[in-house]
Specification:
26% helix, seven-stranded mixed β-sheet, binds dioxothiomolybdenum(VI) ion, five-stranded mixed β-sheet
C-alpha cells in the first residue's frame, strides 16, 4: 500500500487544518531531547564495538605531487596494525547530493591538510603518535595559486536583461560598491567521525551525515562496491551545517581500513582536521550596482560575485541565488565568476548563496536608502515586485511586506532617520539597522513508511536525518496529527539506510520534503481505514485511537486486525518551475559601538519570518535563533584565514575561529507569520532552517553605520576596521 504524489499543481485542500488531534504546529519538545541532554544519545564515535581499532590521518604538509612516503618508523611501533594509503584513500570531501565518489586526488596534493595516509592501531594514542612520524616526499608541481586571481565567467552563470549601464547613468540615485566576505567553516559541534564494520561483503558505517541515500552511493562508489552492500547508520548528528552533506575522507578511510584488517575501525577527525579537510565556504567578492529614481524605486540591479574552489570541483558558492527575484528593477546584470585555488575544498556551508549574497546586497540597499534619504524599511517596501522580475512568473507567496511591517512594529523601529553617529551613551555610539531575509524554497524527493498498530501506536521509518533541527519532533507530530494519536504513541526511527530513502537534511528542504512523505503515508493509511468504514478519507476523523465517520465511532482495534503499513513518496514536479518559491523575512537590530575601541556589541535583535505552515513553532524558532546567531558571527568575528603563501588554514580551532558565544548574543526575538503555501507541498509548509541567516549580518553592519557613520564593506567588522574609519 503506497501513495506517490508528484507536486505538479498547487494543493489547496488544506488537509492538515482539518485534522482534529491538535498536536501539529504546537511547540512540542524534542522526543530525543532527554537522551541528548543526559549524554545517552549515541553519536557516531560513541557506538564503539568490541575490538575496534583506531585510525588517525597523516596529512599533507604542503601542496604539490606526492612522490612517496616514509612510514618505516610508524610500522615499527607497537600496536600499529596497518597503514592505508594510495588511490582509494586520497579523496576530498564529497559535495552535497554528489551521489558518487568524491573527487579523487590521486597523487595530486591540492591543499595543505589533505589526508594522505591512515594509521590504524590498537588505540588512538598509538595511531596518533605513529601518524606524526610519517614523512612525505612531495615534489613541486604546477598548482593553482593559494590566493584567488584570474577568474573565469562560465556562460551559464551570466544573465542580463535590459541595459543596466544606461539605467545607472540615468538614475537619480545609484550605488556601485564592492563587498568581500571571507571563507567560513561549517563549525558543527560534533567533529566528523565514522566507525566501519564489515560482515563479509556487507559494510555497516556508523557516521555523522546529513543525506544518507546519497552518502550510501558516494561511499559505495568510493569503495568500488554495490550500494546494496552498504548500510549507513546516523541516528544523531551533532550539527552538519553543510559539512556533512556528502561523505568526508574519514568515512572512506574507516571502511578501507576495516576491510583490510578484518576489524571494526573508527576514525574521528580532530577539530583541526575538520577545519582543513572537510568543507569551507568560499570567500566572496561581490559588486552590487543599484539604480533608482528619486523615490528609491529600482530601475536597475547588478550583482556580480567572484568565488573560488579546488581544480575539478563543480560546486561554486551560489552567491546571487536570490538576487533575480528579490526586488523590482527591469535592467539587470547578474553573474558569477569562478577561479581555482589551492585551498581546502569549497562547498555548502549554512545557507550557501544567500547567507553571504543577501547580506552584501542588503548592505547595498542600506547604502541606497541613505543616499536617497529614504527610510530603509520603506525603501524595501517600495521595491517589492509584483512577480519574479527575472523570469516573469508569479511568486508562490511573497511575505516580504508583511515581514517588514510586522517586524518593524515588534522591534520598535525608529523611522525618523536620525543622522549616523547622532546617538551616544557615554563612550558608546548607538545605532539601529535592518535587512530583508530571503531564501529559495526547494522540494526534494522523499520516502517514508508508517506502520499503524491496531493498539493505537504508530512507527515512522525513513533514512531522513535529524541534524539538530527537530526532525524527530516534527515527524512525530505529523503522524500523530494525521492518525489521531497522542504524540507519545508515535515512534520515529531515522538515520538508517535500511529505512525508505528520505530527502536528507540540506538546503532547508528536510522538514517539508520528509514531512510530505510522512503526510502521504498517513493519508494512505487513512484511506484504507475510510474504505473499511465505507466512507471517504476526507470524511474520516481519527481522534484518540478512534475512527469516526457518519456518526459512528469505532476503535482502531476493531477496524484493523493487524498492523497496517504504508509508504508515502513525494516527488517534486511542475510547482518547482511554474512559480517562484521562496521564504521571506526581515531583521532588525540595535548595536552599541565603542568610540574608543571600535568594539561592536549587538544589544538586541529581532527577526520576523514567513515559511508557510509552521510545523513546530519551538523548533522553527530555534532554527531562526541559530541563524541570527550565525549572522552576528558573520558580521563581527567569523573569518577563516588562509596563509597567503600556501593557502593553509591558519585558525583551525574554536579558540582562533571566532563564533559568537553566549556573551556575544543578546536577547533575540523571533516572530513567525501565519501562512500556507499551497505550491510548496501538500502540507503547505516551507523550509525555515536557513532563512534566519540569509541577510542577518547586514542588519548588524547597517546598524554599525547608523551608529558611527562607518560603512564596513569587508566582512567581518572587526575593531580595527571600525576604528580606522571612525578616527577621521
Ligand atoms: Mo546545508 S549548508 O545545505 O546543510
Amino acid at each position: 500500500m503506497n501513495l506517490h504524489h508528484k507536486m505538479d499543481e498547487a494543493d489547496r485542500r488544506n488537509r492538515l487544518d482539518e485534522m482534529a488531534q491538535g498536536v501539529l504546529s504546537t511547540p512540542m519538545d524534542r522526543p530525543e531531547g532527554p537522551l541528548k541532554v543526559s549524554g545517552t544519545a549515541t553519536y557516531a564515535h560513541e557506538a564503539q564495538p568490541d575490538g575496534m581499532l583506531h585510525g588517525v590521518f597523516a596529512r599533507a604538509p604542503r601542496i604539490g605531487r606526492l612522490m612517496g612516503m616514509d612510514d618505516t618508523a610508524a610500522r615499527g611501533m607497537d600496536g600499529v596494525k596497518t597503514i592505508i594509503s594510495g588511490e582509494r584513500l586520497l579523496r576530498n570531501p564529497a559535495q552535497g547530493t554528489a551521489n558518487e565518489a568524491p573527487v579523487q586526488g590521486a597523487s595530486d596534493v591540492h591543499y595543505v591538510g589533505q589526508p594522505i595516509a591512515l594509521v590504524v592501531a590498537d588505540n588512538f594514542e598509538t595511531a596518533r603518535a605513529a601518524a606524526q612520524t610519517i614523512s612525505f616526499d612531495i615534489a613541486d608541481a604546477d598548482r593553482a595559486p593559494s590566493t584567488p586571481r584570474d577568474y573565469e565567467s562560465p556562460d551559464d552563470q551570466q544573465s542580463s536583461q535590459g541595459d543596466l549601464d544606461r539605467a545607472m547613468n540615468e538614475a537619480a540615485v545609484s550605488i556601485d560598491q564592492t563587498y568581500t566576505t571571507p571563507s567560513h567553516n561549517s563549525a558543527a559541534m560534533e567533529p566528523h567521525a565514522s566507525i566501519a564494520q564489515w560482515d563479509g561483503e556487507k559494510l555497516v558505517l556508523r557516521g555523522s551525515y546529513q543525506m544518507l541515500k546519497y552518502n550510501r552511493n558516494e561511499l559505495a562508489d568510493a569503495l568500488g562496491v554495490d550500494p546494496e552492500n552498504v548500510r549507513i547508520v546516523s541516528p544523531y548528528v551533532g550539527g552538519g551545517f553543510g559539512s556533512k552533506l556528502g561523505i568526508a575522507p574519514e568515512a572512506v578511510a574507516a571502511a578501507l581500513a576495516a576491510r583490510e584488517t578484518g576489524h571494526p575501525v573508527g576514525v574521528a577527525m580532530t577539530r583541526q582536521q575538520v577545519f582543513e579537510s572537510t568543507m569551507r565556504r568560499s570567500e566572496t567578492r561581490q559588486r552590487v550596482r543599484l539604480a533608482a529614481d528619486a523615490d528609491g524605486r529600482l530601475s536597475g540591479v547588478g550583482h556580480d560575485a567572484w568565488v573560488s574552489n579546488l581544480p575539478e570541483e563543480t560546486f561554486f558558492e551560489p552567491v546571487t541565488q536570490a538576487t533575480p527575484f528579490t526586488y523590482r528593477g527591469e535592467n539587470r546584470v547578474i553573474g558569477t565568476h569562478v577561479t581555482r585555488v589551492s585551498r581546502t575544498c569549497a562547498g555548502s556551508v549554512r545557507a550557501p548563496g544567500e547567507a553571504v549574497g543577501v547580506t552584501c546586497f542588503e548592505i547595498a540597499m542600506d547604502e541606497l536608502a541613505h543616499a536617497a534619504g529614504i527610510d530603509p524599511v520603506e525603501l524595501r517596501r517600495r521595491n517589492i515586485a509584483e512577480q519574479d522580475p527575472s523570469e516573469n512568473k508569479p511568486y508562490s507567496s511573497n511575505k516580504l511586506d508583511a515581514a517588514l511591517t510586522s517586524g518593524a512594529a515588534a522591534f520598535g523601529w525608529d523611522d525618523s532617520r536620525p543622522e549616523p553617529a547622532s546617538r551616544r551613551e557615554g563612550e558608546w555610539l548607538i545605532g539601529q539597522g535592518m535587512a530583508s531575509a530571503v531564501r529559495v524554497n526547494t522540494l526534494m524527493g522523499s520516502k517514508a513508511r508508517v506502520t499503524l498498530d491496531p493498539g493505537g501506536t504508530a512507527v515512522v521509518e525513513t533514512d531522513m536525518t535529524d541534524i539538530g533541527t527537530g526532525t524527530y519532533a516534527i515527524l512525530t507530530q505529523l503522524a500523530a496529527e494525521m492518525l489521531g494519536l497522542e504524540s507519545g504513541a508515535v515512534e520515529v526511527r531515522l538515520g538508517d539506510t535500511d529505512h525508505p530513502p528520505g530527502s536528507g537534511s540540506g538546503g532547508s528542504w528536510g522538514a517539508s520534503s520528509a514531512g510530505s512523505s510522512v503526510f502521504l503515508a498517513c493519508q494512505s493509511l487513512r484511506r484504507h481505514i475510510a474504505d473499511a468504514l465505507g466512507t471517504s478519507e476526507e470524511n474520516l476523523t481519527l481522534k484518540d485511537g478512534q475512527a469516526i465517520a457518519d456518526n459512528r465511532s469505532v476503535p482502531l482495534s476493531e477496524v484493523l486486525d493487524a498492523p497496517l503499513e504504508s509508504t508515502g513518496e513525494i516527488e517534486p514536479g511542475d510547482t518547482g518551475d511554474d512559480v517562484r518559491q521562496a521564504t521571506w523575512g526581515a531583521y532588525f537590530c540595535e548595536v552599541a559601538v565603542n568610540s574608543v575601541t571600535g568594539e561592536t556589541r549587538v544589544r538586541r535583535m529581532h527577526g520576523t519570518f514567513a515559511a508557510g505552515r509552521i510545523l513546530n513553532p519551538k523548533t522553527a524558532r530555534s532554527q531562526c535563533l541559530g541563524g541570527m546567531t550565525f549572522g552576528i558571527g558573520m558580521a563581527l568575528t567569523e573569518e577563516l584565514m588562509h596563509d597567503p603563501r600556501d593557502g593553509h588554514v591558519v585558525n583551525r580551532d574554536f579558540a582562533e575561529y571566532h563564533l559568537p558565544v553566549n556573551a556575544d548574543v543578546p536577547q533575540i526575538t523571533v516572530e513567525l507569520l501565519d501562512e500556507r503555501d499551497p505550491w510548496a507541498n501538500p502540507m503547505q509548509a516551507k523550509g525555515i532552517g536557513e532563512l534566519g541567516i540569509c541577510g542577518a549580518a547586514a542588519a548588524i553592519l547597517n546598524a554599525i553605520h547608523n551608529a558611527t557613520g562607518v560603512r564596513v564593506r569587508d566582512l567581518p567588522a572587526t575593531l580595527d576596521k571600525v576604528l580606522a574609519e571612525m578616527a577621521d
